[in-house]
Amino acid sequence: MKLKRVAVIVLAGLFVYLSLYTWNLRTGHLDTLAENTGLDAVRLALKPGRWLADQVSAFWRRYVHLVGLQEENDRLRKDVDELLMERNALRERAMSTDRLEKLLAFTPPAGWQRVGARVIARRMGPNALLETLVLDKGSIHGTAADQPVVTPQGVLGRVLRAGFTASTVLLVDDANSRIPVLGQKYRSAGVLAGRGADRELELKYVNLNAPIEPGELLVTSGLAGTFPKGLPVARVLRVERSDLSLFLDITAEPLMDFEALEEVLVLRREGTEPQASPGGD
Amino acid sequence: MLRALWWIGFSAAGVWAQTLLPGVDFLAAGLVFSFQEEGRGRALLLALVFILLQEGMGSQPFGASVLWYWFLLLLVSLGQYIFQPRSAPFAALLGLILGLLHFLQTYAMATLAVKAVPLDRVLVESLLQAVAFPLEWLLVDLLYPARLRSHDQPV
Asked: Please, what is the angle between helix B40-57 and helix B2-20, to 10°?
């Protein structure tokens, strides 16, 4: 009897699950629901935590490590610490201003507008199959799926999903990322593919007789319509000839350290107003 | 009220833990504990919230978390007939099964969605999941407020 009941529960569960899965593949409603609830809730959980971590860290620096010293040393050290903290805070602010100035100096290509965003998290959770970043800007700020995400150094990826107030970005180095590119110097076309985190990129489908050399910058070709033409994406590291393939074996490196990113720009086409994301990827 | 605050705090801590160790589920142990301590109804409500959180922060098409939590609750339901359900060995066994399931499910879901899978990375995540789950379950059992504990426990 028990076995029969378990079998019914298993079969019913599988039926409901497969129905939901296929229905969602067609409509994307459940993806939209998860983006507009789960992703936004994650942002809500992370933002106060970051603030709290900063406060705790400041408290620790100010008070805890001074305990146990002589009174005179306390006062002097406190003065020094306060000055150091002030200097560090000013230095941090100056560096942040530098970064923001560079971001603001980035001129978007004609027909595109920029939306500044902060990185609040990286790949997270058991479903984090892809190499991603989480941004603090969502559809109410104008971001939507497939919009390019860049820094002044170049392209870092595209928006994968957009919730109301947060978005997920698929990075260039993910094994599922494909971007049509051109060599900046010799204009040889190919498709730039990721191989996973901390691994080199691969430039595919470049003919054996195509001119391309190590050190050459790869820029977006604009062919797929997702990225504007001419944005730098990677630099060629090695060019090798294969005896078995009709194409060159080319390795490239990204133009930035994805782990160190703090602020980025999302590009959206002019005329597209901030609105709810259609969902799906 | 205290119960709601406890689970909100747990969820926020879980989300933070998941940013530190990507690929590992830090909410599953709470769900199993809720099922064992608070009963099926509350655990299902919690599962719904956790599914939305995991699907929102993940990068797979909707469905992986539904299957993941449904299988977990099925395992706990079946396990109570065979094992001592509220014990560290049972939590360790669940951790091992979840580790294996993470590997198989990630591979299956990625194949369904025609996506490349970094198998070496998923293997490490599976090992971490197997170790983290029982430890976290013990921690939740230790920290769960005494005022909320029922004398006639559901499981």
From this structure: 30
Q: B21 φ, ψ to 5°?
A: -125, 80
What DSSP line would sit under A211-237, residue for residue? ---TTPEEEE---SSSS-TT-EEEEEE
- φ/ψ of A162, rounded to 5, equals -130, 120
Cβ contacts below 8 Å, chain A against chain B, sum to: 138
d(CA A257, CA A267): 20
Count of other CB atoms within 10 angstroms of residue B117: 18
For residues A232 and A255, the answer to whether their CB atoms sit within 8 Å is yes
How much is the pLDDT for A278? 42
**pLDDT tens digits along B81-90:** 888 888 889 9
Contacts of A67 (CB under 8 A, 6+ apart): none
Helix (H, G, I), strand (E, B) or coil at A26: helix
Residue A7, chain B, CB below 8 Å: the answer is: no
ipTM over 0.85: no
Q: Which of B35, B42, B18, B49 is nearest to B90 (CA)?
A: B35
| Other Cβ atoms closer than 10 A to A133 | 23
CA–CA gap between residue A132 and residue A124 (Å, rounded): 8
**A196/B118 touch (CB, cutoff 8 Å), yes or no:** yes
User: What 3-state DSSP class applies to A113?
Assistant: strand
Q: Can you give the pTM of this predicted structure?
A: 0.79
Residue A260 burial by Cβ neighbours in a 10 Å radius (0-12, 13-18, 19+): exposed
Sequential DSSP letters for A150-186? EETTEEEEEEEEE-SS-EEEEETTSTT-EEEEEETTT
From residue A133, alpha-carbon distances to A136, A227, B119 in Å are 10, 18, 20
Tokens 């900046």, residue located = A184
pLDDT at A175 over 60: yes
The identity of residue B132, as a single letter, is A
For the segment B35-74, what is each residue's pLDDT rounded down to a tens digit? 999 988 999 999 999 999 999 988 887 888 988 999 899 8
At A263 the three-state DSSP class reads strand
Chain A residue with Cα closest to B13: A45
Contacting residues for B45 by C-beta, under 8 A, at least 6 apart:
none
Cβ of residue A10 closer than 8 Å to a chain B Cβ: yes
Tokens of A166: 């947060």
Sheet strands (E) in A42-147: 112-122, 132-135
